[in-house]
């Protein structure tokens, strides 16, 4: 019951998120968030990773397949979108090129479920699940951590996506990957103060390697397990301004319930 309330009561209903980029700081908080100086990914590196493209061809966000109809992404990517707005987007899987093409899998987006405690002024709970118009059975789902998988402080991680390769640059036509280190909560708190909530967020950075505009919603992997979702940050490359990821250990229970309550 309670779960149903969460899932039907708080869809992506409120207003439409503008993708207009007001200024460079704001830009980093917008869904249209690049992997700076990454290296091209190889076929099969990130099978569950998909690009969320608008009918105009632009890249809105990234997401990962977590169930036959289910894509994990950031709440800011879909917040405020009704089914008409969502229908303008396609998830493209199994392609290193953001434009898809031969061998790729494209699916419409039918519905989204935003974490009930997310709000646009609140950077916490920036997690959502999109439901696809048709299932995807050809690719493996992304692996998620368990709630008790630990803090990952000082652990090396890998991120991947098509975001802009420089702050204010254009998106990458091919999927890029980069290595970053998950930072200690104390370090990130010293940079961002109260905006960083260690219980539900993690910070990661490496000189020259980080997510940027267009990567929002995309995965941060540790040893093949997705431990974070790209959320926000104040610089794509400054190691003193790490990018912030939703800490998936604190969301796996909600994600599991959301899948159970929305089998398709
Ligand atoms: C949302 O916030 C409320 C109030 O703090 C809390 O009781 C509830 O468990 C939260 N929901 C989820 C899914 O975490
Ligand atoms: C996927 O969709 C097909 C066609 O509707 C259906 O036959 C199949 O059972 C579905 N598989 C899953 C895992 O949802
Ligand atoms: C950035 O990522 C690339 C590609 O994965 C890697 O070769 C390089 O070592 C990383 N840079 C740093 C400073 O970690
Ligand atoms: C397409 C694009 O914007 N590429 C940029 C990626 O980032 C590198 C390093 O900042 C730039 O040199 C590229 O122009």
Automatic annotation (TrEMBL):
SMART domains on file: Tryp_SPc
Pfam hit, one: Trypsin
Domain Peptidase S1: start-end pairs: 35-260
Keyword set, alphabetical order: Disulfide bond, Hydrolase, Protease, Serine protease, Signal
Signal peptide: 1-19
Coiled-coil annotated residue ranges, if any: none
Sequence similarity: Belongs to the peptidase S1 family.
Protein name (database record): Peptidase S1 domain-containing protein
Organism: Daphnia magna
